[in-house]
Specification:
Structural class: alpha/beta
CATH class of one domain: Alpha Beta
Strand content: 5-15%
Bound molecules: 1,3-dihydroxyacetonephosphate
Shape: globular
CATH superfamily of one domain: Aldolase class I
Largest sheet: 8 strands, parallel, barrel
Radius of gyration: 17 Å
Number of strands: 8
Order of helices and strands: EHEHEHEHHEHHHEHEHEH
Length: 255
Amino acid sequence: MRTPFVVGNWKLHKTVSEALTLVTELKNQLAAIKGVAVAVAPPFTALTSVAKRLEDSAIGVAGQNCHWESKGAFTGEVSAPLLADAGCTWCIVGHSERRTLFGDSSAAVGKKASAVLAAGLGVIVCIGETEAERDAGRTFAVLDEQLAGSLPALAGSEQDFARLVVAYEPVWAIGTGRTASTAQAQEAHAHVRKRLTERFGGAGAGAIRIQYGGSVKPSNAESLMAEPDIDGALVGGASLEAADFVAIVKAARPK
Ligand code: 13P
């Protein structure tokens, strides 16, 4: 079965020293917790220091974005091989903030996702509808469009499926304090699982983890994680405080 996976997306927060304080607390407080995979996604500038601090821990390190090319004249970009070199084992691609603020199209996200896998990292592909799209009854259509373009090319081995994670993050729930209801989230996750089954077959789709993201907090994590197709969380704001993040990880433990 799928090991739940909880990732803290720190976005544009934390200096190197603040990052080290937080991961040292996480390392101590999560050491004894079994049955949940955990990773943090600090800003680029803190990746190397955080990865070093976590060397002897089970907590993984993720980039928040990368370019699809591995090297070249791409001022301001960071590639998946460079993330691996900095100590990352994961990279997030296609976050809604990237899609809306920085113009990442699904086609670009798909290229990034393939580059991440090719560099030997796991990839977290984010998808999700806006409030206007939900109100217009277009949620599934938007998820379908995003999935069609954003998923990586996969060789189809068992390891491949374990290295592909889809994060369903309804845009209207990100940073707003409004979480999708457990029913809304489960409905979207089941739809994503159906599409993954069509694309990769039942065994593949059964191994791919689907995280929920959008105002996940200690108070709502337990009920979200109890849904059959919710395999963990991509946590923004609540991942910046050790106590909140640890509580969310604990809520994701298999029952
Ligand atoms: P919040 O948890 O702050 O709503 O952010 C969710 C998110 O965007 C994680 O990637």
